[in-house]
Amino acid sequence: MKMSIQQRDAVVIGAGFAGLAAATRLADLGFSVTVLEKHATAGGRARLFESDGFKFDMGPSWYWMPDVFEQFFEKAGESVSTYFDLVRLDPSYRVWFEDGPLDIPATLGKVKALFESLEPGCGDAFDRFMNEAGEKYRLGMAEFVWKPGNSIWEFANFEAILSSMNMAMFSSLSKHIRSHFSHPKIIEILEFPVLFLGSRPEHSPALYSLMNYADTALGTWYPMGGMIQIVRAMESVARKKGVRFCFDTEVTGIVEGEGRVSEVTFKDGSIRCQVVVAAADYHHVEQRLLPAQWRLYDDAYWKSRKMSPGALIYFLGVNKRLAHLDHHNLFFDVPFEPHADAIYDHPRWPADPLFYVAVPSKTDASVAPEGSENLFILIPLAAGLEAKDNEHEVLFEKVMLRLEQAVGADIRSSVVFKRSYAHKDFQEDYHAFRGNAYGLANTMSQTAFMKPKMRSKLPGLFYAGQLTTPGPGVPPSLISGQVAAEQAHLWLSKKLKTTLEAV
User: Fold this and answer.
1) Residues 6+ apart with CB under 8 A from 400
2) Please, what is the end-to-end C-alpha distance for the chain in angstroms?
3) What confidence tier does 194 reach under pLDDT thresholds 50, 70, 90?
């Protein structure tokens, strides 16, 4: 069969951050792109819902690593500032310990001064730690993150090897932090960002101290109007490039023809294509949509994966203003170890969990009615838990009691809207494997090329998102989508070249 060089049709499954990034990059690479999305709007886990005048971002609430967003828009010939207004938060976030709150300032110098006040004489250690974390960030972004993870040889860069020998890269993050600091509050603050990566600090490579650089040096930001503004901006950029979106269209199968991907089916039809980037849940796509002979992994493999925590989220509308809470609030007012054990070692509903509270209405008046607050409360939980009784309500009462004690005010009597969202919701809405919220844990054995492969066994199919490289989080998802698109382009270009040479 003679294949025309013009045949460059691509399908992207899923319109979350990874799918939007993949679609835009594919369009820039000359593909005619169609995005098939199960829901009525783009965003995936970052969708928006509104009720009673409150606007709730459903998932991601932290805007970290602004350089990754800037690079995406610049690569597409656009600018972040064209689409949304970014505000740097100061303080970056507030940490609530047993003896009260501690604000984390928005500059390195002020964070250094804070640490010095907690642990006198640690300033030099702070400088060494952050300088190394900055180098890891530079090296990680250049040599590790923007790679498809097909092989260990992708990482055999001489500079990277030399730098790895001179830096703590592969010992545990917990050990690395403790080699610089001894104050328990400093340790908890520095270990916090890795919780977004889904594993205990003692099981995470010290490479991930790069997150401390991202947190402290690059800052915590907020797009006015909420995280949904990023989604809307990315969809707008994609549409400008000719990307077609089909919403309310759930994919039912991926068809093989002549030994390569040929078609994607959905309830009311199908679409032929040369490449597919699956930015939906990897496990669902491979185990439910792909013919068995083209699966790289079996049930035993997936059952053996270490998952990042799931999440129990409460969306609350409160009809009064709340003093003392900041935009981002981390409640470390109880010991972490019992909660960690309930997440990672002996999965169960935690007795007294740590939790996170976002109050975007502290920064953005548009997300709540006047005089009200918009609260997003998240409790990390073991993946795969089932709520059989009233676990959601039990935990709600526990965290609300501690929250009220912390701020010195009654909140529950002022709640005018409440919605909970947990494992089963993630499964129903996103086909999330084991109800995961963040993907795989970034342990030593699940990092880089040891994650599920971006390139499928079925030629022409590529995966993007938090279950493949580089991993969980919004910036990694943006990167994953772009890298998957580039891998698809590279594969098809080689295929077309071989075909044309044979004609």
Assistant:
1) 411, 412
2) 9
3) confident
